[in-house]
Write a structure and sequence with these properties.
This protein is α/β, with parallel strands linked by helices. 46% of the residues lie in helices and 12% in strands. The chain folds into 2 domains: 183 residues, Rossmann fold; 120 residues, Homeodomain-like (Arc Repressor Mutant, subunit A, Orthogonal Bundle). The two termini are 19 Å apart.
């Protein structure tokens, strides 16, 4: 197996975890299977850079002196807001030569500024998706997933999602056993699928201010198969159905029905990914009642039926 050279691009204002998270993953894989990766870091002039948290990183070399890598990894951070034009120029010239382009968090903004995401589907940190789409209309921005892979280009959302993407790349380069060994060493999940939403249902919605509504939110999450009609939830909050529906939307930013839908979909996806339970059993446990109801919900939200979703994302079905 040929050794792959990985180059991490460093710049002032970089997010340290965007660098060190994936770096630990690939280094762990190299330690497990020596000769797999040659890992380098480089800044524009080869000098130290100061991260957004104040940590100083000392690169191995200057970008102008490094040979074209197999995998070029561009992290994000505050330094992507007003990047050095020389960095954008370097990416524009050298990005197309890499076999694989990877960005973490707002590193995708640098790739887009260099024209490397035109015509591709990509993601970034949820807080910057609108800006990426507005400033670069040639990029198909998907704000939902924790990472997106489009051919040779992979982009990921905020900070820790870079670890998820790096583990997926290690699994692709080597095998699942190596990726699992690295994940265990780092005490992280091996398979957090790329199409998993950046926010869980609880994070996607605002937390209600009033205690009765917060308690209802928590109860929904813990009882997806329960009676989650507006009438039942309103009674639990000791409000009339009309008052409850209005207050829930005002305080959470979504309707009770949409919140319930998201919780049930998230619960079903987790069971499909992490268990061997049958589809019928999962549909009942997630509050759908029948497998056909769950199938319709998956097709509407994800564009794929539950059986195909499991085939893609259940570890036992990965190979």
């Amino acid at each position: 197996m040929p050794q792959r050279t990985l180059l991490f691009v460093l710049f002032d204002g970089v997010q340290s975890l965007d660098v060190t998270g994936p770096l630990e993953v690939f280094t762990g894989a190299e330690n497990h299977t020596p000769g797999t990766y040659r890992i380098r870091t480089a800044s524009l002039d080869g000098g130290p850079v100061r991260t957004s948290s104040g940590l100083t990183l000392v690169p191995d070399e200057a970008l102008t002196q490094t040979p074209d890598p197999h995998t070029l990894l561009v992290p994000g951070g505050q330094g992507t807001r007003s990047p050095d034009p020389r960095l954008t120029d370097w990416l524009r010239a050298h990005g197309p030569r890499a076999r694989r382009l990877v960005s973490v968090c707002t590193g995708s903004i640098l790739l887009a500024a260099a024209g490397l995401l035109d015509g591709r589907r990509a993601t970034t940190h949820w807080a910057h998706c609108d800006k990426l789409a507005r400033d670069h209309p040639a990029v198909e921005v998907d704000p939902e997933p924790i990472y997106v892979r489009d051919g040779r280009v992979s982009t990921s959302a905020g900070v820790t999602s870079g670890i998820d993407l790096a583990l997926a790349l290690v699994e692709e380069d080597l095998d699942r056993d190596v990726a699992l060994a690295v994940a265990r060493h780092l005490v992280v999940f091996l398979r957090r699928p790329g199409n998993q939403a950046q926010f869980s249902a609880q994070l996607a919605a605002q937390t209600a201010q009033r205690a009765p509504l917060r308690e209802v939110q928590q109860w929904i999450t813990e009882h997806p198969a329960g009676d989650l009609t507006v009438e039942s939830l309103a009674a639990r909050a000791r409000l009339s159905p009309r008052h409850f529906a209005r207050a829930f939307r005002e305080e959470t930013g979504t309707t009770p029905g949409r919140y319930v839908d998201r919780v049930r979909l998230e619960h079903a996806r987790r069971l499909l990914e992490d268990t061997s339970d049958g589809v019928e059993e999962i549909s009942r446990a997630s509050g759908y009642g029948t497998s056909e109801s769950m199938r319709r919900a998956f097709l509407k939200a994800l564009g794929t039926p539950p059986a195909e979703y499991r085939r893609r994302f259940h570890p036992a079905s990965a190979h």
